[in-house]
Amino acid sequence: MPTLLLIALLSLGGCSTMTTTLEPPDTQYDTRIVEATTGRVLNVAALARQVSAADVVVVGEYHGHHGSHLLQSRLQAALYRQRPDQVLTMEQFELDHQAELDGYLSGQIGETELIEDTAAWDNYRASYRPLVEFARTRAIPVIAANAPADIVRCVGRKGADYLDTLAEERRSRLPRDPFIDTPAYQAKFVAAIAGSHGAGDPTMSKRMQNTYRAQLLRDNTMAVSILEAREAFPDHQILHVTGTFHSEERLGTVAVLEQRAPELSVAVISPVFWPDNQTAPAVEEYRQRGDFLYFIQPLPVEFRDPERERAAMTARFSQSGSTRCD
């Protein structure tokens, strides 16, 4: 795979736009962007130049963080100014709603209809509307890249074999090999979901395996959606927006994408929370997370009770009780 180092070397022009001191973000909207290998501080225009030659630009986010979403929107515009041939691929829409998304982009339905018909995320208007509207007004293709939520839930409940029960029309939309992964990603996933709980419990182990397969189905579906977008729109740059767990450390969707198409150059941009003590962070501590890092203010603490936090995390990856998997 072409390295991002080469891309960086080819894109060093215009360095005068870069700042020299990493300052803490002032508000939840602000970001401080850093090139991971050098620690150089960039603005959005300089970041866009650095990744201008990449085939795929993956911007990880903390869902609902204002800084993540504002950076994505500004980078989308900056990349477009350099390479108008752009495609936006999104975790936030499921592939079986591509027709409705296309209908909105072509003016056949309105925004509320889009939100209702695609079961759009609750924060669509606040977080993703700017990306979609930028694309719509410039005829940029937008790809619904994620696996259908009901299928993901049923894989989490019943395991990988559930895919064999799907009608051919639905199964054919999913990747042929839907569970490609890497050992590092599995270890990270289990640590994030279970911690030390259930380490010797075979029942828990099987349940965790199913939950992990559901995660892999999302990652593989997004990776294949990106590759299909590349095939449908040759020479276009892909901008992919996704939760950072799917992309940081080049794991998840990025690892699958690189296994399926090692010839692609993929730039990974990952968020990092600014340290609580407000001192400038040591960039090398976070370097493995991506080719470029953007520091943002931490989100408010969701939980003070560790047990409630673990239960909530498990629930987020578990199946919905209303989903039928018969």
TrEMBL record:
This is ChaN family lipoprotein. InterPro entries: Cofac_haem-bd_dom, Fe3_uptake_reg_CjrA_prd. Residues 1-21 form the signal peptide. It comes from the Bacteria. SUPFAM superfamilies: EreA/ChaN-like (SSF159501). CDD domains: ChanN-like. Residues 47-256 form the Haem-binding uptake Tiki superfamily ChaN domain. Keywords: Lipoprotein, Signal. Pfam families: Cofac_haem_bdg. The keyword Lipoprotein applies.
